[in-house]
Amino acid sequence: MTPFTRGDPPAVLVECADEATASWVARVTVNRSASFAWPVRNGVRVSQAIARRLTELTFGHCCYCDSFPMDGTGEAQLDHFQPKVEFPQLAFAWPNLYLACAACNRAKLDGWSALLVRPDEPGFRFSDFFLVNPSSGELEARPGPNEARARETIRVMHLNRPGLCTLRSDAIKRPNTTVAPESRPYRFLLQARDALG
Ligand SMILES: [Zn+2]
Fold first, then answer.
1. What is the CA(131)–ligand 1 centre distance, in A?
2. Whole-angstrom distance between the N-terminal and C-terminal Cα of the chain?
3. 58 with 24, same domain?
4. What angle is formed at CA 132 by the lines to CA 128 and CA 136, rounded to 5 degrees?
5. Which residue from 104, 132, 152, 178 has the least number of CB within 10 angstroms?
6. Residue 68 located in a structural domain
7. Are residues 134 and 182 in the same domain?
8. What's residue 173's pLDDT?
């Protein structure tokens, strides 16, 4: 998880958010299984504009595991940090939307806890929360004041899933120094050498 600063939302989201939120709240209140759809404005699905804006802010990395390119296929999904059924008022709220790889999105599903760490929360630094085991690639919660939040984040987002640990370990052992830092996966490993346990 690499920090980023959340800039302004895309204009199309601002334009449609109130109306789309009211419609979604009304539908999901009577039917928790109601299907969710992003509105279309000027022929463009609003989710595409949001994903494009988040891609600019994160250089196309997954907001949670920092994989890049996402899943090797460039497939990116939008995750509602606070789930859209449980928190329908936040379904179109810019601060609640994150770019996630398919694996993180699938792992997190509707899981949520107030303890979860956000990469754009003020002052967030990877090494204040997490340690990395360089041989296994596993993340550990750094002992101290953030320990419970780190542990819950690893659990809910499945940040120690086996394939991801292997990729992380490879990135430590064989860093690809031929590409710019923003184009390397798991940038937090570069930014937080002291996070290596
Ligand atoms: Zn991910």
1. 18
2. 16
3. yes
4. 170
5. 178
6. yes
7. yes
8. 85
Same domain, 101 and 130: no
pLDDT band with cut points at 50, 70 and 90 for residue 171: confident
Q: How far is the CA of 27 from the centre of ligand 1 (A)?
A: 30
* Domain assignment of residue 96, given as a range: 11-108
Res. 126: pLDDT tops 90:
yes
For the chain, what is the largest distance between any 2 Cα atoms, rounded to a whole number of angstroms?
54
Total domain count for the chain?
Answer: 2
Per-residue pLDDT band for 75 (boundaries 50, 70, 90) equals low
Whole-number Å distance, alpha carbon 107 to ligand 1 midpoint, is 9
Locate tokens 């994903």: which residue? Answer: 51
- CB within 8 Å of 178: residues ≥ 6 apart: none
| Domain final residue pick, 73, 108, 143 | 108
Give residues whose Cβ lies within 5 Å of ion ligand 1. Answer: 62, 64-65, 67, 101, 104
Q: Are residues 83 and 23 in the same domain?
A: yes
Domain end, chosen from 75, 108, 141, is at 108
- Amino acid, res. 84: K
pLDDT tops 70 at residue 51: yes
Instruction: Find the 158 Cα to ligand 1 centroid distance in Å.
Output: 9
Cα 103 to ligand 1 centre (Å): 6
